Amino acid sequence: SYVLTQPPSVSVAPGKTARITCGGNNIGSKSVHWYQQKPGQAPVLVIYYDSDRPSGIPERFSGSNSGNTATLTISRVEAGDEADYYCQVWDSSSDHRVFGTGTKVTVL
Amino acid sequence: EVQLVESGGGLVKPGGSLRLSCAASGFTFSSYSMNWVRQAPGKGLEWVSSISSSSSYIYYADSVKGRFTISRDNAKNSLYLQMNSLRAEDTAVYYCARDFMPCSTSCPLGYWGQGTLVTVSS
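^ Those are the sequences you sent over. The predicted structure of the assembly is below.
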């Protein structure tokens, strides 16, 4: 089955840039979506189709996808960005929706 | 405003059954694929099942295939998950989620309910 690997944690100072990677075999050929989940809350879509932003999501959130790695970038990080982040793809070979292992972003 | 409200969670013994419901409002339910995603305590997100708008296409995670059944009633704007032969490892918060837009299987999940907790324990 298709596996998406994320770093367990990323720490970043306020105002700096956080980059969260999502590794998968030839993930560049798939559409990647990213979700933010704060404690006790449901996930929220922050990036879809690699780099599109839903309305209401700050421009500070951006995404890219190439080769074996997709990346979610959070610029000018704020305290409110502290959350778990998950990447997700659809694996057409198994007809399964697959989530990444998740990354906890800590704002120092 | 899109609203998804799950219900039906609770405590059930191993081997037991439970039926989850998701009441949808604020959009044309019959136009969107729907999904169940779960999250075990302290763990990450795990996709459970998806159903297309007309129920023509249904998909299951390997971990629940043969035990869980997803269904929908477009006349009642409702999504269901029938869970049989429950195991301790099925303990999780179960979220109902709507595709962000009418699209194919690669669609992102744009709207989520608040979840309902299922606990499988003797």
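The mean pLDDT of chain B is 97. Chain B is about 0% helix and 50% strand.

Shout if you want it in another format.
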